[in-house]
Amino acid sequence: MDNIPDFVARMKGEKFAYIHPLLEPVLEPTYGIMVYQEQVMQAAQIIGGYSLGGADLLRRAMGKKKPEEMVKHREIFAEGAAKQGISRAKADEIFDYMEKFAGYGFNKSHAAAYALISYQTAWLKAHYPAEFIAATMSSELDNTDQLKVFFDDAQSSLNGITFLPPDINESDYRFVPDGQKRIRYALGAIKGTGEAAVADIVAARNAGGKFKDLFDFCERVGKQHVNRRTIEALIRGGAFDSIEPNRAMLLDNVELAMNHAEQKPTTPTRAGCLIWSKTPSKRSRSFPAPRGAKPSSWPKKNRPSAFTFPATPSRPTPAKCARWRKPRSPSCGRKKAACAWPALPPASAASWANAAASSSSSSKTTAAKPK
User: Fold this and answer.
1) Which residues, 6+ apart, have CB-to-CB distance to 208 below 8 Å?
2) pLDDT digits (tens, 9 = 90+) for 111-141
3) 169-208, pLDDT tens digit by residue?
4) Nearest to 246 by CA among 297, 170, 285
5) Which residues on neighbouring strands pair with residue 182, listed in sequence order?
6) What b-and-e string marks burial along 337-362, b requiring 16 or more CB atoms within 10 Å of the CB?
7) What are the beta bridge partners of residue 184?
8) 164 has which bridge partners?
9) pTM of the complete model
10) Cβ count within 10 A of residue 201
11) Cα–Cα nearest to 196, from 226, 232, 172, 231
């Protein structure tokens, strides 16, 4: 890597000299700098007198940096260089240069493939910055440290990318470009979520539209993959800010919302809770009052207009019915059905008769007692 500035300068016309004239045919294509592993092997052949097999063993030893192997190969290389009339000092200089390069060099085919990919990705980043950076960050959703590097690079003055906050009504599992210079933050990049949980959220949103509140979210998403920890992570990550910016209140009501979703009755008027709307809608909703909210601060249209309670039998007890029932006078113009309670089921007629008799005798006993 230290030779990259020299390589660029020489490519642009800077004068240079080869490390040895014998290596000019080998190093000419790369401006006198070793770039490929094949050049190391060729230098070992020309200067040190190695065979192709021996040159490959030298390359491996240099890559693995084994001291005992390097000492042995240094002597072999110096002996071969001496046969070419090269001094020991110059042979050691060439060997050190080869050793330094071999620590990071690639073979030519590998380096060419990397160069092509680098060119393609550089072009994409220059012409489609939001799409490129969104795809790059989506490949590292589980690596927070790497995401931070990409995030800072995207927001730099060179790239000028703006990130939109995570939103349960807008975000997907991965980062999504929103225009040429904007990216919507991924729900999958929030710690505590997962792909299955986000998939359930997106499916519920696509099926029923945007979520209106925390209770609506819990009711529609379910608990198969989205648990309390997931919801709390989304709240802390700001994914609910577009619905309710008060994160503390949302966190305080997670358990309440999840319990409400589990115990949701078939008819909202039997729920034993507050009705939040005076006018019925296509989808009647009944939610408990959120903890942490002051009734005086609620909008007028959202203030509770009535209380509803679990349904109870509207029929009075048999004893009270017998006590209240009065015979219809002949002069009464009302219909008989208007003066009497609805007929009882046959199975309970006997119990009603006994209760009526008991009530009658009790009234007589009470009347006979002295004051």
Assistant:
1) 220
2) 899 999 999 999 999 999 999 999 999 999 9
3) 999 999 999 988 999 999 999 999 999 999 999 999 999 9
4) 297
5) 162
6) eeeeeeeeeeeeeeebeebbeebeee
7) 164, 176
8) 184
9) 0.59
10) 26
11) 226
* CA dihedral of 119, 124, 125, 128, whole degrees rounded to 10: 170
Distances (CA, A) of 356 to 53, 72, 317, 336, 368: 115, 117, 11, 20, 19
Rounded distance between C-alpha atoms, residue 67 and residue 62, angstroms: 9
213, 244 contact by CB (below 8 A): yes
Nearest-angstrom CA–CA distance, 224 and 25: 68
Q: Cα–chain-centroid distance for residue 77?
A: 57
Cα–Cα nearest to 221, from 236, 235, 202: 202
Side chain identity, residue 99: E
Distances in Å between the Cα of 337 and the Cα atoms of 51, 63, 340, 356 are 118, 105, 6, 20
Q: With beta carbons less than 8 A apart as the criterion, state whether 199 and 171 touch.
A: no
Within the chain, strands assigned E span: 162-164, 176-177, 182-184
- Reading the block at residue 269, the tokens are 């008027």
**Type of residue at 136:** T
81: left (phi over 0), alpha (psi -120 to 50) or beta: alpha
- What backbone torsions phi and psi does residue 177 show, to the nearest 5 degrees? -70, 140
Cβ contact 108:36 at 8 Å = yes
- How many other β-carbons are positioned within 10 Å of the β-carbon of residue 91? 21
- Other beta carbons less than 10 A from residue 307's beta carbon: 9
Closest CA to 37 of 58, 51, 16, 18: 58
Amino acid at the residue 341: W
Assigned token pair, 71:
């000492």
